[in-house]
Design a protein that fits this description.
Blueprint (H helix, E strand, L loop, with lengths): L5 E2 L7 E5 L4 E3 L3 E4 L3 E7 L2 E6 L2 E4 L8 H4 L9 E3 L1 E6 L3 E7 L4 E4 L6 E14 L2 H9 L4 E3 H7 L1 H19 L10 H17 L3 E12 L5 H19 L3 H15 L4 H14 L4 H16 L7 E3 L6 E3 L22 E2 L6 E2 L39 E2 L6 E2 L15 E2 L6 E2 L14
Parallel strand pairs: 1-4
Antiparallel strand pairs: 2-9, 2-13, 3-8, 4-7, 5-6, 5-9, 10-12, 11-12, 12-14, 15-16, 17-18, 19-20, 21-22
Helix pairs in contact: 4-5, 7-8, 7-9, 8-9
């Protein structure tokens, strides 16, 4: 075979490592290395030297290591066999990746296992040609983009699964919402894949996730989306799952009129047993009364302040909308003027209608009439004063805490001790 005089790169544009087809070289061979390339001379499975861009003459003067492997029987110009590898160090930024089959990941928010497909692109740059050739290329004649995707498929699929699982668990993000965090997830994955690439002399320039898709036909996905749609409907209408179940139970019981009493009694027990609460129990009681009597107008009824459905007078929660009727009982807590009956605000000092002073009871807030010492609503008695020293004292006090004077009255007729301020003696009826 003729000895090659010029060795140069003849590979394609998407090739990272290309082996020159002939191994018959000589000490006069010209090696041409293009920009963004490096050439590696290999003999006997060992790397002899790495050449940068430019023209190189394979000569023992330029390559001292050749003295050990090349004998010089032809006046200093001798043939020898060796492999020449060209390593492209250009930046390749459009290598596509994707998961061939869905990855099963548990949704951290809803707890169901969801199949996830992912795809994107990444970019690499051969940083260490020698390490790249020895550890990754081996005996392959060509190493291109398809080879990179093939060799690292197991790496990025494993890393993508781990990265997505760690990310969604750490951030507590549902897989249905993960596409809103694509940029953060891409950086998260790059940090975890980059160390593996460095072991083979490759610098991972970027790693992008273009899409994380979930198959719509998957049964788990269908159930999850149906549940989320139902929850959104409940939030819009204004009721919860427990109330919906009680409505369904009431509707089914109403349709079965033949055994209304038995169903209502059993339903009430079940409602209390599983914790349906007062709304279900009261609703069952209302329906039972209506079905047994045949006419809801026979008993005392009221209307729900919210949805205006009929309710028993003693019923607290509405059986239709679950509204708490007790929250509407504001009449007992209203304060009215003792003079004209106008509604008073607790912060008022005078009645806005008649101008009468608001003599507020310290206990219940009731407007006590002018000069009254006792609240007609809660029985509170205003403190009085000691007739001896004038100190403020409670009505129930028997001796003044300041001067010790006895505050217990006695009847002038029968002499019995009288507490408080009655108008007549409880023993003899004498007017005091």
């Amino acid at each position: 075979m003729a000895i090659v005089e010029v060795v140069k790169y003849n590979g394609g544009p998407d090739v990272f490592a290309w082996k020159y087809p002939s191994e018959e070289l000589g000490t006069w061979t010209q090696l041409i290395v293009n920009e963004s390339q490096e050439a590696i001379l290999v003999k006997g499975g060992k790397v002899l030297d790495v050449f940068g861009s430019g023209r190189h003459t394979l000569d023992t003067a330029n390559i001292p290591i050749l003295n050990k492997i090349v004998k010089l029987p032809f006046g200093g110009r001798s043939p020898f066999t060796a492999e020449v590898w060209f390593i492209n160090k250009v930046y390749s930024l459009d290598i596509k990746w994707g998961t061939a089959t869905p990855i099963q990941i548990q949704d951290p928010k809803y707890g169901v296992f969801v199949p996830v497909r992912s795809n994107g692109v990444f970019g690499i740059h051969i940083e260490d040609s020698k390490k790249f050739l020895i550890k990754l290329v081996g005996a392959l004649p060509v190493f291109d983009k398809n080879s990179v995707t093939k060799f690292f498929r197991g790496v990025y699929i494993t890393k993508v699964k781990d990265a997505v699982s760690q990310y969604v668990v750490h951030k507590q993000i549902s897989l249905l919402e993960i596409n809103a965090y694509i940029d953060e997830l891409s950086s998260f994955m790059k940090e975890r894949i980059e160390p593996t690439m460095e072991e083979y002399g490759i610098n991972l320039v970027n790693f992008y996730v273009n899409d994380l898709s979930i198959p719509e036909e998957d049964p788990a996905v269908k159930k999850l989306k149906a549940a989320l749609a139902k929850r959104a409907e409940m939030n819009i209408i204004g009721y919860n799952y427990q109330q919906e179940r009680s409505f369904d139970t009431l509707e089914g019981a109403a349709k079965n009129s033949g055994t209304s009493s038995q169903i209502m009694g059993a339903g009430l027990g079940l409602g209390m047993g599983v914790g349906f609460g007062g709304s279900v129990g009261n609703a069952f009681g209302t329906m039972s009364g209506e079905l047994n009597t045949g006419n809801s107008a026979t008993g005392k009824q009221k209307k729900c302040p919210k949805c205006h459905a009929a309710m028993n007078a003693e019923q607290r929660f509405c059986g239709v909308c679950g509204f708490d009727a007790e929250s509407e009982k504001s009449t007992d807590s209203e304060v009215k003027c003792s003079n004209c009956g106008a509604k008073l605000n607790p912060n008022m000092k005078f009645c806005p209608e008649c101008g009468d002073k608001y003599n507020r009871c310290p206990e219940c807030g009731y407007d006590m009439p002018e000069g009254a010492s006792k609240c007609d609503k809660c029985g509170y008695e205003a403190p009085g004063s000691c007739p001896g020293c004038g100190a403020t004292i409670s009505k129930s006090t028997k001796f003044c805490p300041e001067c010790g004077m006895s505050l217990v009255k006695s009847c002038p007729k029968c002499g019995v001790s009288i507490e408080g301020s009655p108008k007549f003696c409880p023993e003899c009826g004498e007017k005091l």
